[in-house]
Amino acid sequence: MRHTAVLAVVLLTAAAVVALALDRRVPWPLVAVVAGAWLLMVATPGSPYSKPRFMLPFLPVPLLLAARPLARVPLGVRVCLYGGGAVVSGWYAAGLLVLFDGSP
């Protein structure tokens, strides 16, 4: 069940990033590279818990897409979003440390 939930979150995030990229009129080669990276990440065999690390090199792309809309949001909302992202990232990393004895 956990594998399905992680895969669902990864696929929903991928769809949201591609939709946002197309909405912001990002050049199609950049969208193709990010979509290809998501496809490789999802299609690679192995534990789904370690798959998001493959997206680390492509992290600046969705951050750049979200930077302009987030600049207009009030400071309190941004603090909650960034703080929530940090908490979820820490929770995920701690879960990986507890779940795996060795390198995934």
Mean pLDDT over the full residue set: 78
The amount of beta strand, in percent, is: under 5%
Distance between the termini: 19 Å
Helix and strand run: HHHH
Structural class designation: mainly alpha
Number of alpha- plus pi-helical segments: 4
Tell me the number of strands: 0
**Main pleated-sheet profile:** none
Query: Which spans have pLDDT < 50 for at least 5 consecutive residues?
Result: none
The radius of gyration is 15 Å
Gross morphology is flat
Helix content: over 70%
Tell me about this structure.
- The model has no long low-confidence stretch (mean pLDDT 78).
- The protein starts with a helix and ends in a 5-residue tail after the last helix.
- It is built from four helices and no strands.
- By secondary structure, it is mainly α.
- The longest helix is centred in the C-terminal third of the chain and has 25 residues, at 75-99.
- It has helices spanning 2-23, 28-43, 60-71, 75-99.
- The chain is flat.
- Helices cover 72% and strands 0% of the residues.
